[in-house]
Amino acid sequence: MRKKSNQIIFEKKFAFDIWDKKTISQAFRFAEEYKKFLTQNKTERKVVEWVEKEALKRNYKKIDTFKKSNFKIGGNRKFYSINRNKSIILGNLGKKDILNGLKLILAHIDSPRLDLKLQPLYEKEHLAFLKTHYYGGIKKYHWPAIPLAIYGVIVRQNGKIINIEIGDKENEPVLMITDLLPHLSGKQLEKALYNAIEAEELNLLIGSIGVRKGKEKIKNNILQILNRKYKITEEDLISADLEVVPAGPCRDLGIDSSFIAGYGQDDRICAFCAINALFEATGSDQTRVVALVDREETGSEGATGATSNFIIDFIGELLYFQRRKYNENYLRDALSLSKAISGDVTCGFDPDYQSVFDPENTARLGAGVVIEKYTGRGGKFYTSEATAEYVSYIRNIFNKAKVNWQTGGLGKVDIGGGGTIAMFLARHNMDIIDCGPALLSMHAPFEISHKADLYSTFKAYLAFFNY
Ligand code: MN
Ligand code: MN
């Protein structure tokens, strides 16, 4: 992308201004696949299912069903492991000794949303509702008056898992949270945006037809419908992961269709690019791993989040497969020599809200994948930071592979901030840097990405794996 010249100014290059026609059409084709993926996979469980299906097509073997004693050393082999149906990790075992370190790309597959409470169902004034508890950093006022869908599982006492998907197929009803009519909103409109809509007002309207006799007629009727359809009782709703997400497909955005609007792009855009990069990476020497984790939006705690040992344990398995023996010292050596990308989105410069951005240090949509040396807030709190040496290593790879890249950050210092999972892997003493596309309207029900940035992110991850 950058000319061999004596130019000493570093400036953003807008991909569609400089790419040839062929590359641009490749980027648009890649976006079509991504849009399908995003439309079909609105929860971490759905992403895990999708990735497993794609992995099996490519002969990946599930580690927990693998007989270690039959394992033969030599050659390039592919493995994956699933953690509680909510996170998945894949590895291509290379010929080179893992003790020299691996290449890892991590991304998260959970997104801000509304979860159902444990006892969600109630009726009031001849209407039935489901109570929700928001997950992650949402702006609560975004969620009323838009069509919503429910995805997830209800697990019966006997362990049987019932899959629930309501609201995205054309013949299915959608669900909705009500909002007040403007005519009576005088008081509401004077409130701060933060509490204009209260968390306890985020209730889904789900019914109004009652059974003929007894108490709580509407609630009872809803339970009977659920019982007929799924053979579940009200108590079964207690053992459930049910997530409320925007209904409807991911779409092109803009008269020139240069953008993508869709739910959950933070951070499934990086998950999609990382998986595709792993599948397309060439050469069998180095060991490559992609980990797609849950719970990032609430701080990464939990068995399926980035602070859990499952990522490191998986690397331990690969080490065992390659060397036929395992010891902690080998594992620690391998981790300390590993190189990682924390694939996550960052904010794009929005001309309507200029005051919060440092213009020189904010990414622009369309100018390629973003390298972030650190994230966090205030005086670099709550973040790791890539060393100068590692940033040099990364930009060298991207420049050699002609990847369109830029730098970015999360707004002006002291305005706000946010973290990623980079610091949780940095704890294992590896080099790691944040790298992913910029979004507009991040964490909104529909987030906006740019097709050139999507493709640049894929190319960047591919270069990282191939180099
Ligand atoms: Mn994210
Ligand atoms: Mn996020």
Description:
This protein is an alpha/beta fold and 467 residues long. It is 29% helix and 24% strand. The strands form 5 sheets. Strands 1-2-3-14-4-15-21-17-19 form a 9-stranded mixed β-sheet, with helices on both faces. Helix 2 (21-40) packs across helix 12 (451-466) and helix 8 crosses helix 9 (328-336). Bound molecules: manganese (II) ion (2 copies). One manganese (II) ion binds at residues 108, 266-267, 296, 344-345. Residues 266, 297, 443 line the site of one manganese (II) ion (MN).
Question: Which shape, going by the Cα principal axes?
Answer: globular
Please name the CATH topology of the largest domain: Aminopeptidase
Q: Number of helix segments?
A: 12
What is the mean predicted local confidence, pLDDT? 95
What is the subunit arrangement here? single chain
How many domains would you count in the coordinates? 2
Largest sheet: 9 strands, mixed
Hetero groups: manganese (II) ion
Beta-strand content estimate? 15-25%
SS content category: alpha/beta
| Unreliable residue stretches | none
Taking the alpha carbons of the first and last residues, their distance comes to 18 Å
The CATH architecture assignment of the largest domain turns out to be: 3-Layer(aba) Sandwich
CATH C-level category of the largest domain: Alpha Beta
The CATH homologous superfamily of the largest domain is named: Zn peptidases
Q: How much helix, percentage-wise, in residues?
A: 25-40%
- Strand ordering within the main sheet: 1-2-3-14-4-15-21-17-19
Instruction: Please compute the radius of gyration using only Cα atoms.
Output: 24 Å
**What's the number of extended β-strand segments?**
23
